[in-house]
Amino acid sequence: MKEMMNKKMLPVVGSGYNMPSYKEVYNTFSWEDVEKQFTWHETGKVNMAYEAIDRHIGTPRENKVALYYRNATRDEKYTFADMKTLSDKFGNVLRKLGITKGERVFIFMPRSPELYVSLLGIIKVGAIVGPLFEAFMEGAVRDRLEDSEAVAIVTTPDLLPRIPVGDLPALKHVIVVGGDGALEAGQISYEKEMEQASADFEIEWVDREDGLILHYTSGSTGKPKGVLHVHNAMVQHYQTGKWVLDLQEDDVYWCTADPGWVTGTAYGIFSPWLNGATNVVRGGRFSLEDWYLTIEKYKVTVWYSAPTSFRMLMGAGDEVIKQYNLSSLRHVLSVGEPLNPEVVYWGMKVFDKRIHDTWWMTETGGQLICNYPSMPIKPGSMGKPFPGTVAAILDDEGNELPPNRMGNLAIKAGWPSMMRKIWNNPSKYEEYFRFEGWYVSGDSAYMDEEGYFWFQGRVDDVIMTAGERVGPFEVESKLVEHPAVAEAGVIGKPDPVRGEIIKAFIALRDGYEASDELIEEIRKFVKEGFAAHAAPREIEVRDKLPKTRSGKIMRRVLKAWELGLPTGDLSTMED
Ligand code: 6R9
């Protein structure tokens, strides 16, 4: 099967990247050299918000735009100086409420400048910030606030009904952004407090190992896990911003992720601002035209998005792209799910850019396996480990496997942005480190002879059919190469003879109708173009596939549907 994978290389395009050749730095790089660039290396006084914002004050970046914000009704910009003043003020608002270091303060609202100001202010008082997707319903909000014993939450009037205040004894303050409705006892107006707050603020210096952010992530069973990251993560956010995002002084950077997802904080806030980059934030749902318009309007140069979005753009056809001027784009990246080779080739065709895949997880806090702009890439591969980190494929006993063998993707423990705990759940944390010295990701992958890593699926998604191990991703990638297929999710369905058979759920592109002939044609397409044993025996057409808010196809939900089993925690599923 592996031999069937497309191993075509795409060479480096352009020059002048921050990162020299990968080979050159892999063996010489040290995280300690990165740390030395921060003053806290000597003073011991750390705060992420200081490094991301305040540090630029008094430098030529002071009046540079830190944040461009736009939604249906607002169009605004904020300099680094503005962000400092506003977050200092919000820090004072929180201090007045008595909020102190280590307490958990949540944010539950749509993307807006106030969200970013709040997040920085929370960090400035040394509290731990917990960002939530605005689409969470009451149960999801309750689980997270209860588990973390949050003392305050910043939200909007629309979302207030979804916060079960009465059930949350630890929750003392509800800060409401916008709206002129009457506030109830315990509710505080953001605008009123900000108006009165002084901009004279003394930041809370913390230890590099102190808590910074709590991201809840769903597993396949049980309640969501609270993944805790610490201020030290900045070392990774800073350096990956240099070498992976390739942020340079004049860049206008757009990360499309919501801060409810780790990508929207690590790479939507910390990494770009640590590097002093101009950050674009767009509010509202995905819209084809508005996405291209955003790139055109701000002359976005570096664009970080997810396969699901790229596939939607691809599915809409190339005509629409011609109506926009996207020539500002210099560097394009993807994360969250495997990036199908088809999408990479499409990117070459329509943007004349390689789309650089990056692999990492909520738990890893930062990018770990990437395609670097200064490195030849192989479409379909996640790339190579970031300098300073070691990745390997382990068997189920923890032994390292040779190239081309599928197994557990693991990272040598100890990179700067690694999670420091699972809130209230030490045994869950330890499960990740069950093989001495390794963090076991739960992803299944293999490494080729040249050290490129190839994603196969979550370990529990890998299919065993007639004695062959099949990674669902390879089959999905072949399926979306067919002109009629917009999206595909592939699962193993129990079968008395073959162990499992391959079943595909697909959504069709606009203009295609489901029919027996079309299904048979798609099956043949995979069989002949990829591998006979990997052709789905069953193909079912659906209007939409179940996806997380970050765009991941939820194979476990497909499987539960198929087997008529409970679907588990669905709080992160898209509507
Ligand atoms: C950042 C983020 C983590 C899981 C991870 C893997 C999948 C992420 C990927 C990828 C293939 C990539 N994933 N990036 N799979 N290629 N480039 O996504 O965090 O939401 O915690 O998800 O996402 O399965 O284990 P998170």
Written account of the structure:
The chain is an alpha/beta fold. It folds into three domains: 22-39 and 234-401, 3-Layer(aba) Sandwich (Rossmann fold), CATH 3.40.50.12780; 47-61 and 71-229, Rossmann fold (3-Layer(aba) Sandwich); 462-563, 2-Layer Sandwich (GMP Synthetase, Chain A, domain 3), CATH 3.30.300. A nine-stranded mixed β-sheet has the order 2-1-11-10-12-13-14-15-16, sandwiched between helices. A five-stranded parallel β-sheet has the order 4-3-5-6-7, sandwiched between helices. A four-stranded antiparallel β-sheet has the order 17-18-20-21. A hairpin with a 5-residue loop joins strand 20 (438-447) and strand 21. Ligand 6R9 is lined by residues 217, 262-263, 335-338, 357-362, 382, 441-443, 455, 458, 550, 552.
Key terms:
Rossmann fold, alpha/beta, 5-stranded parallel sheet, binds ligand 6R9, about 575 residues, 9-stranded mixed sheet, 17 helices, GMP Synthetase, Chain A, domain 3
By secondary-structure content and strand pairing, the structural class works out as: alpha/beta
- Estimate the global geometry from the Cα principal axes: globular
- What small molecules accompany the polymer chains? ligand 6R9
Distance between the termini: 36 Å
Mean pLDDT, rounded to whole units?
93
The name CATH uses for the topology of the largest domain is Rossmann fold
- Low-pLDDT regions: none
Radius of gyration: 23 Å
**Highest-level CATH class of the largest domain:** Alpha Beta
Indicate the CATH architecture of the largest domain.
3-Layer(aba) Sandwich
Counted by DSSP, the helix tally is: 17
In CATH terms, the superfamily of the largest domain is ANL, N-terminal domain
Give the domain tally: 3
Fraction of residues in helix = 25-40%
Q: Which strand order do you get reading across the main beta sheet? A: 2-1-11-10-12-13-14-15-16
